[in-house]
Amino acid sequence: MRSGILVVLVLLPGLATAADGSRAAAQFRRADADSNGALSRAEAERGMPALARHFDRIDADGDGSITPFEIRAWRKTRRAARGAEARTRFDEYFRKADADGDGSLSREEAAQSLPRLAKKFDRIDANGDGRLSIEELHDWLAARRSARASRAGSGRAALREGASAK
Length: 166
Fold this sequence. Notes:
mainly alpha
């Protein structure tokens, strides 16, 4: 029983990486010279130099090695931070475009300051009041991101199905 648990614990990091199936996972496996399921700083510098620059931030438990789980967590945190930064930048564009400072954009304000957005004004104006609130814009952008992610996910699924049919 103990040897079975030991085998699972030794293989678990490798299984998680292999299950990913991505180019990053393949690169991780190549960089993992000792095949222990984790990258030392030296292995990261040789095999994944872009990741090695962030080694200390990725190494969440401070054990001197990074695992696929730590890399995924770090990437997820970075994505969230970038999303928050993008939202802050967008909110600033909105405030600058809101010439009269009433907290919403008229069709004219949108056309003058955000012409690409103005072309979609009627689609974004969810309540049909002729003004765009920051909430309407955030909801519209979230729906676009979700639709884009669904389309991308469908494309990846089709690629996987095509590959498995061969």
